Amino acid sequence: MKRYIAHHFPNELKTYALLTLASVLTVVAVTFFLSISGFSQHIFKTFIVEYPVLNFIITPITFVAIIYFAKQYCHFVQGSGIPQLIAATNSRNKSIREKLLSFRVATGKIGFIFLAMLGGAPIGIEGPSIHIGGSIFYGFNRFIKLNRKFLIHALIAIGGSAGLIVAFNAPIAGILFAYEEIGRNLKKQALILIAIVSVMVYIFSIIYRGNAPYLGDLSLHSLDLSLIWQLLPLAIITGIFGGLFARAMLYLIKKFIAHTKTKVIIIALLLGVVVAIFNYLSAGKIAGSGHAEVLQILNNKALGLDFVVMKYFATLSSFVSTIPGGVFMPSISIGAGLGSEVANFYTQINTQVVIIMAMIGYLSAVIRAPLTSTFVILEMTLSLHLLLPGLLVAFIANFISKQIYQQPIYEALADNYLKLTKKA
Fold this sequence. Notes:
The termini are far apart. It contains 20 helices and no strands. It is mainly α.
């Protein structure tokens, strides 16, 4: 038994020292990334309130410049970054993994996200954080020199887990995401190594940047379990809207795929104009990740149904454009907006609880990872006591979404990256 367990861990002490160094570097790099991303979001939103018309110049030009440059010179930094990790994990080809994950890719991701948010793109930071973490850990393999496929793939999953943990201060969700999404094909024993290193990353993260919950402390809000049945309509609604988002996104990406420079520029310009219109109409509220807007909603400052509609279509346009950026936090903000709107119909359930459940349901429907969706929201709000209703809503929303579109979005996009790497 001892020999069997040891087979699933690296043998050399140097390996563990380098994993520790990779953990520290990931914490520092992702924290820096979060800081400059938040700074660029703030600059754009402040500027656009004073000069709203300039949005019609800034945002389309930003989309064209970033998308064109990325497609021509560094194609694999596009999108959220999670599909790249899945593709790298599914691939046995070292050259493919090195195209998708490297220190160069991590640096490019940080720079592009900063510029995209400076230009008003409605994008999240969690997928890029996961991509950065995966790139750093896999980049360290040139020093660690793991040869077994099992350990190499575990290393990639560890990096993805680390990125999510640092981004959202959600250790359980990070571990679950590594196994539920990135490492679906990994052996179960990999979870032990992933969990050990992820806990180490979490400890370093607390030491370096504190332990504040990402969406505030909502631990005082509870739910009478005898009322749990009332959440079924909410789970169905969020499942439908999240499933439609995923289906529309994958359909439009295939429809808008372009191979010529002219088409790339035209499509990027058109989608940039769409986002600019929503930025103008919302006074910049739909720009960025949506973190600030979720905090407002959770503090009983409803942003209205128009915010939900504009964020929904702006996020869809941005993701379809393939501009670098994640979908986690924008999805959470859409879910929060939906929850705020339907909370008036729940007279027996606390408004914040309804919003939390709506965020879980919508995120689960979009990314089709119900365990991750539940734990990441509950950890970000210190609401793990709502685990049972959260899981119920997540799995129902996931089931509804699956009826709308069979393949999860990250898996579908990962297949595309594998095809691209083989052509490159």
